[in-house]
Amino acid sequence: MRRSQLFTKTSKTTPADETVRNAQLLIQAGFIHKEMAGVYAYLPLGKRVLHNISTIVREEMNAIGGNEVWMTVLQPKDIWEKTGRWDDKKVDNWFKTKLANGTELGVGLTHEEPITDMLHEFVSSYRDMPVYIYQIGTKFRNELRAKSGLMRGREFLMKDLYSFSRDQKEHDAFYEKCAEAYMKVYSRLGIGDITYRTYASGGIFSQFSDEFQTLSHVGEDTIYLDETKRLAVNKEIYNDEILTQLGLKKDELVEKRAVEVGNIFPLGTKYADDLGVYYTDEHGKQQSIIMGCYGIGISRLMGLLAEHFADDKGLVWPENIAPAKVYLARLGEDPAVVKQADELYDSLMTAGVEVLYDDRPAVRAGEKFADADLLGIPYRVVISDKTVAGKFYELKARTSDTAGQVSAEELRKALGINS
RNA sequence: CGGGGUGUAGCGCAGCUUGGUAGCGCGCCGCGUUCGGGACGCGGAGGUCGUGGGUUCAAAUCCCGCCACCCCGACCA
Question: What is the pLDDT of residues A221-252, one digit of tens each?
């Protein structure tokens, strides 16, 4: 993308109404726009980051047999009444609305009910199972207090997968498989080493659920961590009895702040039973369906990653989630410089390397360099009269303080282009 | 929802205590000089001072209500 065609701008100052680093940086760099508290729009560069995170999550969900769907935001009341979750006393963060004729509707905060209910249409035999359905979509939750930028919003992007298994064994196997897939996701996002599977409260369906907690000073959760076992316990269930049950020793645990970047729950047979969805087994007998649900907050991850991958100059995206791989800074309007920069832009884009091409005239070098740093693009390539005259390219990694002179071939190699 | 704080030009802020014709920096527009780490000079545009009411000859400034935003807490299938 050419910078001259990008409508967003960077700012020299951080917004006054954000105190958390992730929101400050993402707004300053023009990745997101704050619509209201806890509600953010994603601008071109931010949307790319969100897309790149989604792609990684999607690939891992597909790898374990997930079927991607796109469910609706508007929800009929009746299915939620069947499971007892329409009641505001039971679920207090609903957004609800009404049709013109007065019919009440819910605005989707999660999708167990609609996805399960939909299976009336498709599941009746053991041959139809197991079923793994997921979506990546917007969730709405009327949080009492939005905070920490993208970390706790009222409207946010989430991946939610639901499993429908024939028996406990099948469920347990998938549950573990999904937990492993989650760790793969976090590893690919570059936070695998600071993300821990964490025992947390299981609600009414099981004693525990499993959270995935990433260590961060902006975390809302406190966890107790066993570094060697790479396991943790959420403070909400932390007591002697639980520790004994889990085989964890108090003196081997350290207290840490962490961000919940995923949460998986066994749901038992409740939802399918309440909604009357069953299957017939090999012997012709009607059986209950065992469910699990598996969530990853995509937009929250973006906030966490922005918080984590940053320095005093701005964002420092890992290559696989950066909005572009190369920031091509063209210095000057000399025809030879323009020609070479245009050609490099075309050839890199053709080779599948995403380039943010700073072709803006009348913008000085310092500003372009500062922007390249603020936006956190992994590589910066400079084309100027100097590089044209010297027949080299200037290459600098975002994580490095010094730029090097490289040949065309070395440049392609450094950017991972096989030629 | 309880406690605390903040709303003044696109952004960041001063002015408010002690009422008297709204200012600074950045950004933006024009001209010129610059041109490898956010340049400089000259000229210019841009504001119902969050909002509604009240007090007053006069309100950004004082009083009351409301709205929004931030932080702490509570809450977070």
Answer: 999 999 999 999 999 999 999 999 999 999 99
pTM above 0.95, yes or no: yes
pLDDT of res. A206? 81
Structural domains counted in chain A: 2
Q: Would you say A313 and A12 are in contact if contact means Cβ atoms under 8 Å apart?
A: no
**From the CA of A153, how many Å to the C1' of B22?**
37
Pick from A288, A311, A334: which residue ends a domain?
A311
Residues 30-59 of A with CB under 7 A from strand B: 36-38
| Angle of CA points A146, A148, A151, to nearest 5° | 85
Look-up of token digits 């996701």: A185
How many angstroms separate the CA atoms of A327 and A377, rounded?
A: 6
**Nearest protein residue, CA measured to C1' of B69:** A17
Encode pLDDT of A120-173 as tens digits: 999 999 999 999 999 999 999 999 999 889 999 999 999 999 999 999 999 999
CB A102, CB A72: distance < 8 Å: no
Say if residue A115 is in the same domain as residue A154: yes
Q: For residue range A327-357, list pLDDT tens digits in order.
A: 999 999 999 999 999 999 999 999 999 999 9
CATH code of residue A246: 3.30.930.10
Rounded, the Å distance between the CA of A355 and C1' of B40 is 33
Q: Do A229 and A355 belong together in one domain?
A: no
Domain that holds residue A400: 326-414
pLDDT (tens digit, 9 = 90+) per residue, A14-67?
999 999 999 999 999 999 999 999 999 999 999 999 999 999 999 999 999 999
